[in-house]
Amino acid sequence: MMGKIHELSEILSNQIAAGEVIERPASVVKELVENAIDANSTQVDIVVEQAGLQMIQVIDNGDGIEPEDVPVAFKRHATSKIATRQDLFKIQSLGFRGEALASIASVSDLTIETATADSLGTFAHFKGGLLEEQKTNPIRPGTAITVRDLFFNTPARLKYVKTFQTELANIVDIVNRLAMSHPQIAFTLTNDGHLLLKTAGNNDLKQTIAGIYGVTMAKKLLAVSASDLDFKLTGYVSLPELTRATRNYLSILINGRFIKNYQLNKAIIKGYGSKLMVGRYPIAVLAIEMDPLLIDVNVHPTKQEVRLSKETALMTLIEGAIKERLATENLIPDAMQNL
Ligand code: ADP
Ligand code: MG
């Protein structure tokens, strides 16, 4: 007699996984750009149409994928980034779960063009997770992935997608953070032919911020830095006069990964003491380097939530660095008066 329990088909389990990782067009952008970053790209161009609902394309000049690896890369839990349990404790790459390509392909119409420095290059087309076609395709090293018809086969998810404006705002937000976390990479973002972001890629964080928030704002930011035995912090913060009505302009980048952490945001705000008006938040971009052993990124599928083993010490460092920097800034006008 046949039991009632059976294994899900690969495509169905990929679609279920997609439900966790791929919430909306911005999630596709995030995963594809993270892959481009992990592939050592120096230029990443993101082209979307209709806030990604029509099309999402990410073009990079990175390592590329060998032709025989292409079908493998689109399998769930297929990754080139980790191999052993030890690797999981010291993750250097943005990806490692091997879920993104399988998930995205299972809920869209996807084409990939990719070539490594010493392979001929390949083109492949997936629809709803099925490989429809693969052929030789001579191109320069790098990868271009194009996603159309997102959620065509998951109507419930499609319904959840909001207005173009909301979806575009989410895309811009995620690309902003990815670009900030990687000042050594030149990014562009275009929606319906309009250039929304362009960073220099010259490894200068302040110039990168200028490409994102504008030159005027970048010029007003103060450089901060601090370090202790575990952490090295560098970045930029605004004077207490330059604030926003949301916490959205607080960016914490740990080892090149943008993370969301309420406690660290609180430490930034505490650094301002009583200098901020109620309901106003500063602008801050803080890049923190630490031993990967001190951070667990395997907490949530999207990896934006992380666990830090020395969170309190890091909070103290952040608060102190900002407090000190703002204090010296206040000293300058007084000192000038005495001249
Ligand atoms: P993960 O990033 O967690 O490894 P993905 O499903 O996102 O999983 O990607 C699977 C694999 O495909 C990656 O490990 C990598 O080897 C390869 N890959 C994906 N995108 C690119 C890219 N833009 N350039 C080069 N290799 C890529
Ligand atoms: Mg990935």
- Overall structural class, as computed from helix and strand content, comes to alpha+beta
Strand content: 25-35%
CATH superfamily of the largest domain: Histidine kinase-like ATPase, C-terminal domain
Second rung of CATH, namely the architecture of the largest domain: 2-Layer Sandwich
CATH topology (level 3) name of the largest domain:
Heat Shock Protein 90
The gist of it:
Helices cover 35% and strands 26% of the residues. It is built from eleven helices and 17 strands. The protein binds adenosine-5'-diphosphate and magnesium ion.
Describe this structure in words.
The chain has 339 residues and is α+β, with helices and mostly antiparallel strands. The chain has 2 domains: 10-198, 2-Layer Sandwich (Heat Shock Protein 90), CATH 3.30.565.10; 221-334, Ribosomal Protein S5, domain 2 (2-Layer Sandwich), CATH 3.30.230. It is built from 11 helices and 17 strands. An 8-stranded mixed β-sheet has the order 5-4-3-6-2-1-7-8, with helices on one face. Strands 9-10-15-12-13 form a 5-stranded mixed β-sheet, sandwiched between helices. The mean pLDDT is 92. Bound molecules: adenosine-5'-diphosphate and magnesium ion.
